[in-house]
């Protein structure tokens, strides 16, 4: 469970809780120690909402099976529990009095019969974390439009058109054309100069070519559609 949270992609911090979602839209929340608090006093409790809201609370491995424990919120006892032992934790359904208490409280504690607290969970941000778990999970990556597959051949330009596009042009420009979609062609023009540079344009099937644009400029200095080297598109 904890390993899954550490590998998740979309992460949001809400108070002392971290909500994380993977690329399949599965979300969970992990309790964090308050700022400045010893990590050992605050085990990594996990809040989940599928199939039903529940709080998974680790119990220190040294707590023997059969030991009686008291669960409390802000000092008010909510339940008496028998430790399962062997380092196993508890899965507490978030319903009824427990759900109401954690939504209003500040600190959940688990104590032994001697009243010594063996585990703490900060409740700051838990209500917001529950709301985030019930909300639609954000996409881990933005959707990418896939162009339709086409058997059409790439558009070609005349030698005169190529020479006008390759600025400067030291020899006969060497073009390579790639069909982008049903209506556009990407053309890479090697100007033949030293140092090598390639100029990239998008050609509609009808009309004038336009400089290719990128999310990140292809060149550090203008123009952005000039690529150092032979510039072969991947």
Task: Give a quick summary of the entry.
This protein has 234 residues and is an alpha+beta fold. Helices cover 13% and strands 33% of the residues.
Could you give the order of strands across the largest sheet? 1-2-3-4-5-8
- Write down the Rg: 30 Å
* Helix percentage: 10-25%
Number of continuous helical runs = 4
Question: What does this protein structure show overall?
Answer:
By secondary structure, the chain is an alpha+beta fold. It folds into 2 domains: 2-134, Immunoglobulin-like (Sandwich), CATH 2.60.40; 159-228, no CATH class. The chain is built from 4 helices and 15 strands. A 6-stranded antiparallel sheet has the order 1-2-3-4-5-8, covered by helices on one side. Strands 11, 12, 13, 14 and 15 form a 5-stranded antiparallel sheet that branches. A 4-stranded antiparallel sheet has the order 7-6-9-10. It is rod-shaped and about 90 Å long. Residues 1-8 have low confidence and may be disordered.
């Amino acid at each position: 469970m904890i390993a899954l949270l550490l590998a998740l992609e979309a992460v949001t911090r809400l108070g002392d809780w971290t909500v994380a979602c993977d690329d399949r839209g599965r979300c969970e929340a992990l309790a964090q120690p308050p700022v400045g608090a010893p990590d050992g006093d605050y085990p990594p409790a996990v809040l989940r909402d599928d199939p039903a809201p529940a709080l998974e609370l680790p119990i220190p491995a040294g707590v023997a099976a059969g030991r009686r424990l008291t669960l409390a919120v802000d000092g008010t006892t909510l339940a008496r529990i028998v430790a399962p032992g062997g380092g196993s934790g508890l899965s507490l359904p978030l319903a009824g009095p427990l759900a109401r208490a954690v939504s209003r409280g500040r600190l959940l504690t688990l104590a032994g019969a001697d009243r010594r607290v063996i585990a703490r969970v900060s409740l700051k941000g838990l209500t917001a974390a529950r709301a985030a778990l019930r909300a639609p999970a954000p996409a881990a990556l933005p959707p990418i439009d896939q162009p339709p597959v086409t058997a059409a051949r790439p558009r070609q330009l005349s030698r005169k058109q190529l020479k006008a596009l390759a600025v400067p042009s030291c020899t006969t420009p060497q073009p390579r054309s790639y069909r982008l979609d049903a209506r556009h062609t990407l053309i890479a023009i090697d100007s033949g100069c030293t140092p090598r540079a390639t100029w990239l344009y998008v050609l509609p099937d009808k009309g004038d070519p336009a400089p290719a644009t990128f999310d990140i400029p292809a060149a550090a200095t203008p123009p952005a559609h000039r690529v150092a080297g032979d510039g072969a598109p991947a």
